[in-house]
Design goal:
By secondary structure, the chain is of the alpha/beta class. It folds into 3 domains: about 100 residues, Fumarate Reductase Iron-sulfur Protein, Chain B, domain 2, CATH 1.10.1060; about 140 residues, Rossmann fold (3-Layer(aba) Sandwich), CATH 3.40.50; about 120 residues, Rossmann fold. The strands form 2 sheets. The protein has a 4-stranded parallel β-sheet, sandwiched between helices. It is globular, with a radius of gyration of 21 Å. The protein binds iron/sulfur cluster (2 copies). One iron/sulfur cluster (SF4) binds next to helix 3, helix 5 and helix 6. One iron/sulfur cluster (SF4) binds next to helix 3 and helix 4.
Length: about 400
């Protein structure tokens, strides 16, 4: 397609396309604007989901606009909407149309390359599939075989990213210490596909999901442990669209269970002030707020503090919905605001439980020159340090 959608296609045709792509719910919207009031983007720039909904309803979505790619799918507006409008579904539907026509504004020029890397190597980082399990070298982590208690599905960033590999290593060491019979899929693990789906590429998502499902079934997988709330979300709520159901558990509540059952004991201390950041896909999307705090609360010496926006009102890091692959100007980074909130709360450590949050916070910590005053940690890293 060339030119704008509104000039290229008649309105009814565009509305039908949006509906077919999953965005028909926009008709419920009565333009109150509550979504815009709560949307985190309006802390750093102007952005109106209400306007996008209105334009889509009129059959005139601005498919070429960067605004279409701003929504991080954080879920704040969905909770605030009095009419039950599914803004995220609409936004993803519009991105599907943009993807279908190959329209990618400059800020998301990386997305087609990400899709190619996912197709070719099962990860968004242009990394070699053969190196997916390199993080586990020398740790004695076994390949998953049928009958094991848990499949540890590591995810892309903890498999490849140098910072996030530390999270995978800490997780494996904790599982070993707790006596959990677990294995990994190694090179047979593919990206879960959640983020590329939210970025509008349904075809790549479905390919990844089908391959993962086949691998899970072939290996007799029953219980899947994940480090990322994005893997959790898609395995739990989206893979059932393929008529399969696996038990899925995120590491934060799993750690709490291991501690409650006495399989894991934290003997050491962690004498620091810690603020916990609720990742959107663990908190708002899945209601997991208490368990990560309970884990941190069990560590002697650790002082837990809350930031201004916490739990249901947690401020998005900017990484969801494909935001992790988007170019965002320095002055518009939501993670910068979050890191500042952690300092304002007096924290020496900003803890969370999501690879995207850690990636964005680490960058903001350096950008804001907080390297000497604030550490960024996954809660598994804190638990692992306290075990030693
Ligand atoms: S809060 Fe809901 S009803 Fe109000 S403008 Fe936003 S989407 Fe529409
Ligand atoms: S999901 Fe989050 S980022 Fe997207 S429009 Fe709603 S509040 Fe804004």
């Amino acid at each position: 397609m060339t030119g704008t959608v509104e000039t290229a296609l008649p309105s009814r045709e565009v509305i039908a396309e949006v509906q077919a792509a999953g965005g028909g719910v926009f008709r419920l919207c009565y333009q109150c604007g509550k979504c815009d009031v709560v949307c985190p983007w309006n802390h750093v720039r102007t952005f109106s989901m209400r306007r996008i909904i209105r334009e889509a309803g009129l059959g005139m979505p601005e498919i070429e606009s960067e605004d279409l790619w701003l929504c991080t799918t954080c879920g704040t507006c969905t909770e605030a909407c009095p009419r039950g409008v599914k803004q995220i579904e609409l936004g993803v539907a519009l991105r599907r149309i943009a993807t279908e026509y190959g329209v990618f504004p400059a800020a998301v020029r990386a997305v087609p390359g990400v899709a190619s890397s996912l197709r070719a190597d099962g990860n968004p980082l242009s990394e070699d599939r053969g190196k997916r399990a390199d993080w586990a070298a020398g740790l004695g982590v076994r390949p998953f075989t049928e009958g094991m208690e848990v499949l540890y599905f590591v995810g892309c960033y903890p498999s490849y990213d140098p910072r996030l590999k530390k999270v995978a290593v800490a997780t494996a060491r904790i599982l070993e210490q707790a006596g959990v019979d677990f294995g990994i899929l190694g090179t047979r693990e593919n990206c879960c596909g959640e983020s590329i789906r939210k970025a509008g590429n349904e075809e790549v998502y479905r390919t990844l999901a089908r391959e993962n499902i086949k691998t899970f079934i072939d290996h007799g997988v029953r219980r899947i442990l994940v480090s990322s709330p994005h893997c959790y979300e898609t395995f739990k709520k989206e893979y059932p669209e393929f008529m399969v159901h696996f038990e899925v558990v995120h590491i934060a509540p799993y750690l709490n269970t291991l501690l409650e059952e006495g399989r894991l004991r934290i003997a050491g201390t962690y004498g620091k002030k810690v603020a916990y950041h609720d990742p959107c896909y663990l908190g708002r999307h899945n209601g997991i707020y208490d368990e990560p705090r309970a884990v941190l609360g069990r560590i002697a010496g650790l002082e837990l503090v809350e930031m201004v926006d916490c739990r249901e009102h947690s401020l998005c890091c900017g990484g969801g919905g494909g935001g992790i692959w988007k170019d965002t100007p320095m002055s518009e980074r939501l993670s910068n605001l979050r890191v500042k909130q952690a300092r304002e709360a007096g924290a020496a450590v900003l803890a969370t439980s999501c690879p995207y949050c850690i990636t964005n916070f680490e960058e903001s910590r350096l950008t804001l020159d907080y390297a000497d005053v604030l550490e960024i940690k996954d809660i598994v890293e804190i638990v692992h340090e306290a075990l030693l």
